[in-house]
């Protein structure tokens, strides 16, 4: 952010502003903007700059609708602060835009349609874990990613922690193959089996594992592949080696 200046100056004022904010005081627009600017300009009085911004653009909405180039024209606004305000503008815009969530009640066809739309937009491979209650309502969603284009390396114990803490009735797994066909790999099969074993230990089950990529989503449930994995897991638990 902006270069530090005047160390120690205005600290008492800033603390009082923070206290007013946390106490629920009805702050004026310039005071809210002043507080936001604390994080862009650590060691300078931001009150005049907040007033300058409001005078230049007329309102908070005007400030956060202004382009970076226009922000830089305001006295006291440097490159870093203009970038900071532009990032806040983008954040506020996204918060105002309704985000489409998963269907509230799990249905294999509507859920797969939602996953196909959501995961095809991801440039890197991600894994979503949906925890369902006994009525098949989505109660919790956890997203994992390695920020890699071709794989998502998630230790099963991390998913085990989600299952242990959320205690779902069942889970839906979903991941994508960016720029590749939806055909599941041998690694996908092993992963599905690992998570099914974890679920069985915690008293729940995998309802589906959906792979999104080029073509129609692949559903482990609809193709019968999930049932074969469940049968194998059950045999491993009931017919595994015994030590005497």
Structure notes:
Helix content is 46%, strand content 16%. The chain folds into 2 domains: 11-96, 5' to 3' exonuclease, C-terminal subdomain (DNA polymerase, domain 1, Orthogonal Bundle); 108-238, 3-Layer(aba) Sandwich (Cytidine Deaminase, domain 2). By secondary structure, the protein is α+β, with helices and mostly antiparallel strands. Helix 8 (156-166) packs parallel to helix 9. A 5-stranded mixed β-sheet has the order 2-1-3-4-5, with helices on both faces. The chain has helices at 11-22, 29-38, 47-57, 60-63, 68-71, 79-96, 108-119, 156-166, 186-201, 225-238; strands at 126-132, 138-145, 170-181, 205-214, 218-219. A hairpin with a 5-residue loop joins strand 1 and strand 2 (138-145). It has 10 helices and 5 strands, in the order H-H-H-H-H-H-H-E-E-H-E-H-E-E-H.
Binned strand content: 15-25%
Query: What CATH first level of the largest domain would be assigned?
Result: Alpha Beta
Count the strands? 5
Provide the domain count.
Answer: 2
* Poorly predicted parts: 1-9
Task: Specify the biggest β-sheet.
Answer: 5 strands, mixed
| Count of runs of 4 or more consecutive helical residues | 10
The sequence of SSEs as H and E is: HHHHHHHEEHEHEEH
The spatial strand order of the largest sheet comes to: 2-1-3-4-5
Q: For the record, what is the CATH homologous superfamily label of the largest domain?
A: Cytidine Deaminase, domain 2
CATH topology of the largest domain: Cytidine Deaminase, domain 2
């Amino acid at each position: 952010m902006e270069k530090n200046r005047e160390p120690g100056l205005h600290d008492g004022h800033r603390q009082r502003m923070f206290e007013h904010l946390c106490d629920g005081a009805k702050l004026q627009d310039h005071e809210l903007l002043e507080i936001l600017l604390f994080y862009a300009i650590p060691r300078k009085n931001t009150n005049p700059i907040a007033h300058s911004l409001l005078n230049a653009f007329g309102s908070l909405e005007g400030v956060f609708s202004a382009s970076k180039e226009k922000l830089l024209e305001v006295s006291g606004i440097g490159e870093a602060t203009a970038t900071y305000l532009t990032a806040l503008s983008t954040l506020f815009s996204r918060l105002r835009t309704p985000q489409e969530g998963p269907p509230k009640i799990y249905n294999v066809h509507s859920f797969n349609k939602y996953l196909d739309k959501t995961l095809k937009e991801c440039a890197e491979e991600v894994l979503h874990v949906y925890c369902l209650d006994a009525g098949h309502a989505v109660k919790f969603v956890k997203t994992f990613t390695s920020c890699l284009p071709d794989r998502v390396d998630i230790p099963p114990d991390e998913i085990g922690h989600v299952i242990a803490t959320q205690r779902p009735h069942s889970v839906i797994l979903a991941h994508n193959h960016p720029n590749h066909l939806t055909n599941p790999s041998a690694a996908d099969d092993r992963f599905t089996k690992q998570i099914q074993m974890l679920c069985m230990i915690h008293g729940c089950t995998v309802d589906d594992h959906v792979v999104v990529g080029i073509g129609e989503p692949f559903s482990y449930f609809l193709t019968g592949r999930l049932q074969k994995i469940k049968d194998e897991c059950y045999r491993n638990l009931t017919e595994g080696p015994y030590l005497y």
